[in-house]
Design a protein that fits this description.
Blueprint: H1 15-23, E1 33-36, E2 44-49, E3 55-60, H2 73-83, E4 93-97, E5 107-111, H3 121-125, H4 129-148, H5 165-179, H6 186-197, E6 206-208, E7 217-219, E8 226-229, E9 236-238, H7 241-250, H8 274-285, H9 292-316, H10 326-346
Antiparallel strand pairs: 1-2, 2-3, 3-5, 4-5, 6-9, 7-8
Helix pairs in contact: 4-8, 5-6, 5-9, 6-9, 6-10, 7-9, 9-10
Length: 349
């Protein structure tokens, strides 16, 4: 985490106003310490620690470079609040503030959840092989539970349209690619057109997390159980297999070609392979997974579109003055586009 002393300015945080806002809602002991949690390249996440050691988490959009319809804090807060008490583990919410006058942008605060985030192979090695196996199984079971959630019963029935999910997603991400474009990427346009022409039949709509992967989960390091699912900013209603496809994109296994920047924890001994995840998901959900290859291709393409936005915002300083790594993100986008094209050519064979 990026740490700041009590007297330091914290990018994205008005210390006095946020402190007063929190004091109106929860018991806190001042002064507060704000630590920017690294790892995410979309919304900014801060660990908030009071003088007695109580911890909370604050989420807000990037400092600038926010695209329309992206980084909606109110939407993310609504989803987490709706899922409280369901079989899907989420942090308890403290409150949401839509007024940017408090700290420069809308934000929300949630309770801190104990556990570990498996961002890389080193983090995974701290667990036993048996615990890693449990993590792999439980993350699939949590995904099954999410997709089985009755959207109307939890009050999310009007979150989005339920039909034509892939069509809507292709339009959305291609539009954001166009709006944030700073260079020509013809391969992403070609993959978009191929996917649009080969959309499989879509099943009943469920809650689609939109970015379901190991490092968006908090897990108990002793048991391997998922204690919280994080980062709900891309959540909508639609075809649940899109979540499975994207999970497989991130789930590296021995023998894969390496993607830069992704020191995948799933490469460590003990985690199940991609085929094992698909089999467990199919058994738990009862869904036909024959078309999962299309959703893997879509996952690569969508990730490339998202990271092209990260590349653009990193270069512009939207995440602070440190623009190191922008060129690596730019190259990763190209490689993901190539993977998307390869996966799209294999889908349906």
């Amino acid at each position: 985490m990026g740490e700041f002393d009590d007297g330091d300015a914290v990018p994205g945080i008005d210390r006095d106003r946020v402190t007063r806002w929190l004091a109106d809602r929860v018991e806190i002991a001042v002064p507060l310490r704000f630590d920017l949690i690294e790892g995410g390249r979309s919304n900014l996440t801060y660990a908030v620690t009071d003088a007695d050691g109580r911890r909370l988490v604050l989420r807000r959009p990037p400092l600038h470079g926010v695209l329309e319809s992206a980084h909606d804090m109110g939407r993310e807060h609504r989803i987490i609040s709706a899922l409280a008490g369901c079989e899907v583990p989420v942090p308890a919410c403290v409150g949401y503030e839509p007024d940017p006058a408090v700290t420069g942008a809308p934000f929300y605060v949630m309770e801190y959840v104990n556990g570990v985030v498996l961002r890389d192979a080193d983090a995974a090695r701290a667990l036993t092989p048996a615990t890693r196996a449990t993590v792999g199984e439980d993350l699939v079971d949590v995904l099954v539970a999410l997709h089985a959630t009755d959207v109307d019963a939890v009050g999310l029935g009007d979150l989005a349209r339920r039909e034509a999910y892939i069509e809507r997603q292709l339009r959305r991400w291609h539009r954001q690619l166009e709006e944030g474009r700073t260079r020509e990427l013809p391969l992403l346009d070609e993959v978009h057109d191929r996917l649009a022409a080969t959309i499989p039949e879509q099943g009943p709509a469920g809650i689609v997390h939109g970015d379901y992967r190991l490092d968006n989960l908090i897990v108990d390091p002793d048991t391997g159980r998922v204690t919280a699912v994080l980062d709900w900013e891309l959540t909508t209603l639609g075809e649940p297999l899109a979540d499975l496809g994207l999970l497989l994109v991130y789930w590296a296994q021995p023998g894969d070609r390496t993607i830069p920047l992704l020191d995948a924890p799933s490469l460590v001994e003990g985690f199940p392979g991609r085929d094992d995840l698909v089999v467990r998901y199919a058994a738990g959900s009862g869904r036909d997974v024959d078309d999962v290859g299309f959703f893997v291709a879509f996952g690569y393409w969508k990730l490339a579109c998202i990271l092209e936005g990260v590349y653009t915002r990193t270069r512009s300083g939207a995440y602070g003055d440190d623009t190191a790594g922008a060129d690596q993100f730019g190259q990763l986008v190209v490689e993901l586009g190539e993977r998307a094209a390869e996966a799209a050519s294999m889908a349906g064979r």
